[in-house]
Amino acid sequence: MFRPLLFVLALLCLLVTPTRAGAEARPSRADLQRVLELHARSVVRVRGPQHAGPGIIVGADGQVLTAVAHVGPQSAQVEHAGNALTARVVLSSTVLQVAVVAGPQGAWPAAPVRLVPEGLAGRWVVGVTPGGKGRRDTPRAAKAKAAPAPFFDVPLTLAPGSPLYDGDGRLVAVVVERRGKAVRALPLSAVKAELASADAP
Fold first, then answer.
1. What are the tens digits of pLDDT across the range 108-153?
2. How far apart are CA 109 and CA 121, in angstroms?
3. Strand order from edge to edge, sheet including 182-187
4. Nearest-angstrom CA–CA distance, 127 and 135
5. CB atoms within 10 A of CB 3
6. CA distance 36 to 137
7. Which residue from 136, 142, 144, 157 is spatially nearest to 116, judged by alpha carbons?
8. 3-state DSSP assignment of residue 78
9. How far apart are the first and last CA of the chain?
10. Is 198 helix (H, G, I), strand (E, B) or coil?
11. Residue 8 and residue 59: Cα distance in Å, rounded?
């Protein structure tokens, strides 16, 4: 019954890349450009019955991580490469405010992933502010701040469902809530733990 969850959990583990040793410096201009390129390749739009917003491809077979508000009880539309595809809900957590949907099988450009079990507070993360009206998308770095576990806060203005990256362009978290001029985000390690608990007998 929970095989899709097992698959996504295994996928998150396979996509994890090693961390850099030592303290992390503020992402450089080259780091920000790398994030922007990866972001443009792997971000999609997810549309549910009432709301729509960004999501990020986390599985080469079409798994997308987004905010729970963007999905319906069983399905959502994923807009990618000019196509609107029906995706079924694999995980929907109102407590964590995240969802994972699975689109049709195919070759999807999944983002590289980094799990940070010790948390992200005090670390640099990068979000991409959408352009509009002729403006380009802009990558911005900010330091994550402590929030009630397992969440953290970031002084960036992003929509729920937006991905957050480390300086190497690896996905580390997803935005779940706007809070004034900042956002609350959930680290991927918490998503992995939720998938594992949902899969437990």
1. 999 999 999 888 999 999 999 998 777 899 999 999 999 999 999 9
2. 28
3. 138-143, 124-129, 163-165, 171-179, 182-187, 152-154, 145-146
4. 16
5. 8
6. 8
7. 144
8. strand
9. 10
10. helix
11. 7
pLDDT for 184-193, tens place per residue?
A: 999 999 998 8
For 3-14+27-199, the fitting CATH number among 3.40.50.920, 3.40.50.720, 2.40.160.100, 2.40.10.120 is 2.40.10.120
- Cα–Cα distance measured from residue 180 to residue 155, given in angstroms and rounded to the nearest whole number: 9
- Domain extent listing, the chain: 3-14+27-199
Q: Does the pLDDT of residue 180 top 50, yes or no?
A: yes
Element (H, E) at 197: helix 188-199
**Cβ count near 91 (within 10 Å):** 24
DSSP 1-49: --HHHHHHHHHHHHHB-PPPSSPPPPP-HHHHHHHHHHHHHHEEEEE-S
Based on its alpha-carbon atoms, the radius of gyration of the chain, rounded to whole angstroms, reads 16
Query: For residue 190, which phi and psi values (nearest 5 degrees)?
Result: -70, -35
What is the Cα–Cα distance from 3 to 143, expressed in whole angstroms? 36
**pLDDT, position 133:** 78
Q: Given pLDDT bands bounded at 50, 70 and 90, which one contains residue 8?
A: low
Indicate if the pLDDT at residue 96 is higher than 80.
yes
